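Training component of the fellowship. As part of building independent skills, the fellow (R.M.) carried out the full modelling exercise for a liganded target. The chosen ligand was 5-O-phosphono-beta-D-ribofuranosylamine. The inputs are recorded below so that the supervisory panel can assess the work.
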Amino acid sequence: MGIKIAVLISGGGTNLQSVIDNVENGVINGEIKLVISNIKNAYGMTRARNHNIPAFFVDRGNRNKRILSLLDENSIDLVILAGYLKILSKDIIKKYDKKIINIHPSLIPKYCGKGYYGEKVHKAVIEKNEKYSGATVHFVDEGVDTGKILIQEKIEVKNSDDYKSLSKKVLEIEHRILVKAVEKISKGESDFESIN
Ligand code: GRF
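Fellow's submitted model of the complex:
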């Protein structure tokens, strides 16, 4: 049976796709019960439908109430924020404490928090001439990108890199460490070496 997973997206869904692929090949012991997006035509919704996964658009208004009832109705064990760009309400975070993870495209605590998402992160890393960047999987708590870190992987920023080439390299890391984190959680392994 495995764990019941919900994935929240706002965009292209390449992180979602890596989770779909690794559920289907058995690496992740679980099933994606639903995908939720705040953007109606996000390509990630198409990715879900291509794999017969129910996909729900949640419009503004009672968005968080709708999300909470979808999670409850499907008895979700793990919520994955995969490029989801809205803040979850406190009651979702409280009710699903230590059951919500987020993938962030930087080495938290650097380049995270309000306003740091997507290419804005990579542009800042290049601008600051950082020697390293990378990605982080962390539990979601009531702060923004502040929850316990589960996995991080870093990469050298080359002189030849610009924000586009860096974003591509970091996205590959995201896919890898997100799948690793979900695999461990799906197998009941909580031995993430402590990073913070
Ligand atoms: C990417 O910018 C990624 O760094 C971040 O959210 C965005 C969404 O990627 N996690 P995708 O929709 O999973 O392709």
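The panel noted the following from the submitted structure. The chain has a mean pLDDT of 96. Helices lie at 14-24, 43-50, 63-73, 90-95, 119-127, 163-186.
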